Amino acid sequence: MSLLEVDDLAVHFGGVKAVDGVSFSVEEGEVFAIIGPNGAGKSTIFNLISRIYQPTHGTIRFDGQDITALKAHDIARLGIARTFQNIELFDHSTVLDNLLMGRHTHRATNFVQDILHLPSVRREERAHRRHVEEVIEFLELEAYREKRIEGLPYGVRKVIEIGRALAIGPRLILLDEPASGLSVEETQDVAFWIEDMRRDMGLTVLMVEHDMGLVAQVSDRVLAVANGRPLALGTAAEVQADRHVQAAYLGSPEAAA
Amino acid sequence: MRVVFKKSYDRDIDLHEHWLDRAKIAVLLAVMAALPFLVGNYYLAEAANTLIWALAGMGLMIAVGHTGQVSLGHAAFLAIGAYTDAGLMNAGMPFWIAFPVAGLAAGLFGAVIAIPAVRLSGIYLAIATLAVFVIVEELIIMLEPITGGVGGTMAPSISLMGISFDRYGALANFYWLVLGIVALVTWGYANLMRSPTGRSFLAVRDSEVSARSLGINVTRTKALAFGLSAGVTGLGGALMGHYIGFFNYELFSIFISINLLLVVTIGGLGFIQGAFLGAILITGMPQVIAILRDTVNASTGIDLASLPGIDTMMFSVLLIGFILFEPTGLYGRWLKIRTWFEIFPLARRDMFRRHKTYLKTERMR
């Protein structure tokens, strides 16, 4: 059984078919990439999986469970974490607090205990700190631990988003254009991190990415979409060689003629 | 500049990283506790009033400063707190029961109205809370048997274990009681903000979409924040009732709501300290204006008392000034000044350029 199964997924906004009849499945421990030209519906697929949009039809299964009817805030508890294409961090908080916010699904105390700061709260905080500290070490964010997000450079914020998703302790991580706007070196870091996530943390990675170099380097399988419809599925080389994919990116010779 | 070497996670979890900070709070509390021996009854009563405003301001700060929900209706929660407390005490309940129940009543009411209201944001939420305020005001007038209607009601004198805490008869005791309550609430508030609950408030304030993706139930979090906010303000209302002694619905006017909003905005949104600075300003301003008026009158012979509305005008100018030039409020300004000294001479002009304010309007969502 696949970890994530998307079956005949569609979402229509009025007459616009943003996603239409997309099916794919992601195996446990796989790095799966979705590519496609701008406006192809890649991020929309992410928003459907993380339940921000309600699909018009189709089902999404995670670990055998139908998650199509769940609320957006139930998704993290199942072990699905995500990042956003346009960084959505908590700007006024420190890096540490941002990562600690990622531990929300693991909290066991309620607000009354929190207000009284009972020993259980402190115990739990220590455990969260330990976990977050591992993420900080993994992503080499030590220098920024106490810094507020609003003053940090773009590349660092991008990494913190990945860190916050990792702090959830997920089984599946959705990366929405993790390398967009990053320098070549930073992109290389992201590639290594994705490798490590899979190898050392046993994570399954689903990503949307434009950088074909990165996609080819890390992903096991690639799904190409255009205009909300699937074009090709296979290894990065296979998909890049696909005639329909080339047509979608470059325009078809027939249409040009 | 002070550098704190952290050897355990506990240093981060503690409210204060450095013993000096803890010592400062202890000194402040000691001075506050010694105030009855230092100043006369007039200024002691003013200090109690300031503390009560700070308490009510902290309530509003939870909603506006830390969860990003603007409320123009917090006078309603003050009123619910004051009337519940006075009503229960008039029915024979002791203060130590009536007071927490008053906070609870205001809090529950706040949480219940929050469930539909928090779907709104920015100016729309402000208008919805204003409507709630109008409803509560009408209810107070209609529920005459309990509230005394237009005539008003009397907050009985407080006594605990045979000791009188009467606002006039035993002002020092009343002041200490208020100080104790405010200190306790402040401690609880600070605890809240270093816990998962407090972080979920900040998450909802800064980005609802990513709060959701982290598993935070936004509606429930907002309702909880609003309920806590209303509850703390309700506690402030109960004390305000005792402070005033005899009050009717007019005490809790829309201007009180606006003044509370001033407390948190001028004080510094998103800082507990801001509620205190704002309260000092709001309760201190009329005093300063009165003194100024007398001085001007004595030295130049110009009678400023004949010009009505001068207080309101000064308040407005101050608010507009703060929103335009210092959106982070008094506390934000203080942080900048402190940083300037701490890193002297390395401060740069643009250091705080990227700091933005939390007060969002329609831009949200």
From TrEMBL, chain A:
GO terms for cellular component: plasma membrane. Residues 4-252 form the ABC transporter domain. Keywords: ATP-binding, Hydrolase, Nucleotide-binding, Transport. InterPro entries: AAA+_ATPase (IPR003593), ABC_AA/LPS_Transport (IPR051120), ABC_transporter-like_ATP-bd (IPR003439), BCA_ABC_TP_C (IPR032823), P-loop_NTPase (IPR027417). GO terms for molecular function: ATP binding; ATP hydrolysis activity. The keyword Hydrolase applies. CDD domains: ABC_Mj1267_LivG_branched. The keyword ATP-binding applies. Its EC number is 3.6.3.-. This is Lipopolysaccharide export system ATP-binding protein LptB. It comes from Tropicibacter naphthalenivorans.
TrEMBL record, chain B:
It comes from the Bacteria. It is a multi-pass membrane protein. InterPro entries: ABC_transp_permease, LivM-like. One of its GO terms (cellular component) is plasma membrane. The chain crosses the membrane at residues 25-44, 51-83, 95-115, 122-143, 174-192, 223-245, 251-269, 276-293, 313-332. Keywords: Cell membrane, Membrane, Transmembrane, Transmembrane helix. It is found in: Cell membrane. GO terms for molecular function: branched-chain amino acid transmembrane transporter activity. This is Leucine/isoleucine/valine transporter permease subunit. It comes from Tropicibacter naphthalenivorans. The lineage of its organism: Bacteria, Pseudomonadati, Pseudomonadota, Alphaproteobacteria, Rhodobacterales.
